[in-house]
Amino acid sequence: MRISTDIAGRPLVRGVLTIDLVSGNTVRGTANFRGSPIVINGYWDENTKQLRFDSPFASFSGQLQIFDDATIRVRHFMLSRQLVMKTPSFQAGQYGTWIATTNRELTGPPKYTGSLPPVGAFLSSDLLMQARKLFSNF
C-alpha cells in the first residue's frame, strides 16, 4: 500500500506500508519511508474494520474503507485516520493524519458501492490503469 502522512497540517513523508501477517487480531509488517523497512506490530478488529499499529517512531490508528469501481473494474482499499509521533522522533508528541491506499482488479460483481473514497484512491487507480495500458502494449 502507498502511505502518505502529514504532521500539523504539513506533508511529512510518503512511503510503502506492507502488512505481512494478520493472524487472529495480530498484525505484523513494515513501513518503509526512507528506504529502510521499519517493523510494525499492531492489532486488527475485524468487526469495526479498525487497525492500530506502532513503529519505533509513531503510533497509528486507522479505519478500513473499501470501494468497488465497476466502470474500471477496480477495488480500492484505504486505511486512514490519525498518528502520533513518539520519541526518538524529532516531532515526538505531534499529531497528524495518514492514508494508505492500494487497488486490486475487481474480479466479480461490485460488493462495496457505498460512499465515495478520498481522492487519493482515484489518483492511485489512475496510475494503476496507466501502468496496465503501458504494459499491455508490449
Considering DSSP H and I runs of 4 or more, what fraction of the residues is helical? 10-25%
Measured distance between first and last alpha carbons: 26 Å
Report the major sheet: 8 strands, antiparallel, barrel
- Order of H and E elements: EEEEEEEEH
Describe this structure in words.
This protein has 138 residues and is mainly beta. Helix content is 13%, strand content 55%. It contains 1 helix and 8 strands, in the order E-E-E-E-E-E-E-E-H. The chain has one helix at 119-136, and strands at 2-7, 10-23, 26-32, 37-45, 50-54, 58-69, 74-85, 95-105. Strands 1-2-3-4-5-6-7-8 form an 8-stranded antiparallel beta barrel. It is globular, with a radius of gyration of 16 Å.
In short, what is this structure?
The chain is built from 1 helix and 8 strands, in the order ββββββββα. It is mostly beta strands. Strands 1-2-3-4-5-6-7-8 form an 8-stranded antiparallel beta barrel.
Features:
138 residues; mainly beta; 8-stranded antiparallel barrel
Which helices and strands appear, and what pairs or packs with what?
Layout: E1 2-7, E2 10-23, E3 26-32, E4 37-45, E5 50-54, E6 58-69, E7 74-85, E8 95-105, H1 119-136
Antiparallel strand pairs: 1-2, 1-8, 2-3, 3-4, 4-5, 5-6, 6-7, 7-8
